[in-house]
Amino acid sequence: MPVFKKPESIIKAAGYCGGCGHGIIQRTIAESIEELGLQDKVIASVDIACAFWAQDALNYEFIAGPHGRCAAVATGIKKVRPDATVYVHAGDGCSYVIGLSETCFAAIRDVPITMIVVNNGTFGMTGGQMNLATTLLGDRTVSSKAGRRQDTMGHPVDMLKAIAGFDVEFLARGALYDPRHIDQTKQFIRKGFENQRDNKGFSLIEVLSPCPTNWKLTPVQSMKKIKDEIEKVFPVGVYVDRSAAREKEKGA
């Protein structure tokens, strides 16, 4: 019988809101790192936002990058510490709006880091403002009180499709609304760390995550929203797997 226990890297409870998905993501990160035996050489770049709590919870080295600059900070760390396992844990506002340039240039350079982007469709830590990249049409936020309108606020963008235009190693999207999807998300995150271990290039794993506090929903309602609404706009699955594609070409 398998024994399920807390990863040793988790040393303290974090301060996430009730029902938040960041804690689940944090655990899958720790499980993946420990399963691969990488825990002694980890340096993480977290955003000055919700992911900031991970610094208290995990027994790794951390640098809190300026808001939106996590990918740039992680790139710098990897350049001077190529032996380290460097990962980003940041939100969609940080990664796709304020830090869109930094995320894209890390991908263009194919920097061998593992970037984990939490897509909850909002700027969580600052009060729930609309996210130009991920807030769904019609969703009400503190900066789109009547709901997001396409004619004035644009349409949400599938950033994985955009980044897939660069020559990167791995792009995938997971979700957290049931055990099967949590397990799939973990496999994507683990793959991202395996790629870094093997010096294969840039990996980005996006995770559809609940934000009950800013969505003004219960945790159960938030999970249902991901399944019924958000996943239809942002489908889960693997978008790019360069190594697998090359192996397939060889076998063809």
TrEMBL record:
GO biological process annotation, one example: cellular respiration
Enzyme class: oxidoreductase
UniProt keyword annotation of Transmembrane present: no
EC number(s) on file: 1.2.7.3
InterPro entries per UniProt: 2-oxoacid:Fd_oxidoreductase, THDP-binding, TPP_enzyme_TPP-bd
Molecular function as annotated in GO: 2-oxoglutarate synthase activity; thiamine pyrophosphate binding
Record's keyword annotation contains Oxidoreductase: yes
Keywords: Oxidoreductase, Pyruvate
SUPFAM superfamilies: Thiamin diphosphate-binding fold (THDP-binding) (SSF52518)
The Thiamine pyrophosphate enzyme TPP-binding domain, residue ranges: 59-207
Domain of life: Bacteria
Descriptive protein name: Pyruvate:ferredoxin oxidoreductase and related 2-oxoacid:ferredoxin oxidoreductases, beta subunit
